[in-house]
Amino acid sequence: MRADLRVPFVLRVVLGQVATLTLVIAGVAVLWVGPGGLYWLVAGTVFSILAALADAWVLLVEINR
Question: Is 3 within the bounds of a domain?
């Protein structure tokens, strides 16, 4: 992989993993803690939207360059 593409790739992968991990934590926390675990669901939703925006940016803008 080219060095100039490595950092954006790693950021996209990390953002996707964080979004998935917070949703998994939300499910486990709701089972163990109860409704207090729903705060993790909000974080997971925010990270999922950020990951989708980053992917949309790549598809709409970066490919045309």
Answer: no
CA–CA dist 25, 14 (Å, integer): 16
Question: Residue 11: inside a domain, yes or no?
Answer: no
Residue 54 to residue 44: CA distance in whole angstroms: 15
Q: What pLDDT digit, counting tens, does each position of 47-59 carry?
A: 999 999 988 988 8
Q: Residue 54 falls within a domain, yes or no?
A: yes
Q: Is residue 47 included in any domain, yes or no?
A: yes
Residue 3 and residue 38 in contact, taking contact as beta carbons nearer than 8 Å: no
pLDDT digits (tens, 9 = 90+) for 4-45: 889 988 998 999 999 999 999 999 999 999 998 999 999 999
Give the separation between CA 28 and CA 25, rounded to whole angstroms.
Answer: 5
The answer to whether residue 65 scores a pLDDT higher than 70 is no
